[in-house]
Amino acid sequence: MTSTFLPDKRSGPDVDLPPPAAGRSRGRARRRALHWLTAVGLQAPALVLFGTLVLLPMLFALYASFFRWGGFGMPEDYIGGDNFTRLFQDPVFLGDLWRCVLLVGLSLVLQLPFALALAVALNQKIRGRAVYRMLFFAPYILSEAITGVLFSMIFAPDDGLADHVFGAIGLDGVGGQWFADPSTVMATLFLVMTWKYFGFHMMLYLAGLQSIPAELTEAALIDGAGPWQRFRNITLPLLAPTLRISVFLSVIGSIQLFDLVWVVTAGGPDHHSETMAVTMFQYGFKRYQVGYASAISVAMFGISLVFALAYQRFVLRRDLQGATTTMRGGGT
């Protein structure tokens, strides 16, 4: 029986095949390019909208802040940094800065601890806690305009619900010109802000509390730890990332506060409840000093940016590092 040997043509010396590694490299490069083009194509509409509605107005506001401009036509009267020099000589704007610091301090000392206490209470197994959560969160759902109109009626001088309630319990002298008196307007405004926004922070804290393993609390309870010890040594440290985010949102919100103040007081009486955003609106749309209003907007942006970067650098650094480590660990 004769067998014929057929040589393998693929292994012949005359065949020149590309190295397998080079083919794989070209394939990976094509896939990366395809992924990059897909990502750009999917993000392009959002990037166009963001650039058109956010970046371009910001750049134009910075440009307009160097002009004396009334808002009609294009800015032509270039004055350099005079608007910014005027800004920090303006007693109204300096008062806005002080009121911003006051609102931030009151929020950190009163509003956020109040929201945290309610969150801890509503995290317990009590009857009807779902209803309480809904009721406490409901004010945040209302728009600032509705909230402003509502409390303008409640604190209306001599005829509002607040005056009637205090009069009914024999405290006639407590009521009066709630939003019209410079000595009470900020306290009353902060009360309205707390009613409006504490529910949002409460829900943040509730989400953080529910992520804490119950086994830790049960182990501390078995070891004989009291409620305050469990809160201080277990709940508070594990809730710290949520608390830091809550503080960040509260401070940024206080810096940019506008609509609630505008509806309730419009910055009065005599600028005693005015914020930076209200002052910007007054100069830009009431007095037609758009160049100066643009300088105020740039200052607000700068303050917010400096705070955000500093807060991220010194406060949120551990949280961001932990998130990056988790993402890298999840990819291996």
What does the model show?
This protein is mainly alpha-helical and 332 residues long. Helix content is 71%, strand content 1%. The chain contains 13 helices and two strands. The protein has helices at 20-64, 82-87, 91-122, 129-141, 144-154, 161-168, 185-210, 214-222, 227-255, 259-264, 276-286, 290-314, 317-330, and strands spanning 67-68, 77-78. It has a two-stranded antiparallel sheet with strand order 1-2. The longest helix has 45 residues, at 20-64. The protein is flat and about 80 Å long. The mean pLDDT is 87.
Order of helices and strands: HEEHHHHHHHHHHHH
Tell me the strand order in the biggest sheet: 1-2
Give helix % range: over 70%
Poorly predicted ranges: none
Main beta sheet, described?
Answer: 2 strands, antiparallel
Shape: flat
Strand content: under 5%
Distance between the terminal alpha carbons, to the nearest Å? 59 Å
Q: Mean pLDDT across all residues, rounded?
A: 87
Give the class from helix and strand content and strand pairing.
Answer: mainly alpha
Report the count of strand segments. Answer: 2
Number of helices: 13
Structural Rg: 30 Å
Summarize the structure.
With 332 residues, the protein is an all-alpha fold. It has helices at residues 20-64, 82-87, 91-122, 129-141, 144-154, 161-168, 185-210, 214-222, 227-255, 259-264, 276-286, 290-314, 317-330; strands spanning 67-68, 77-78.
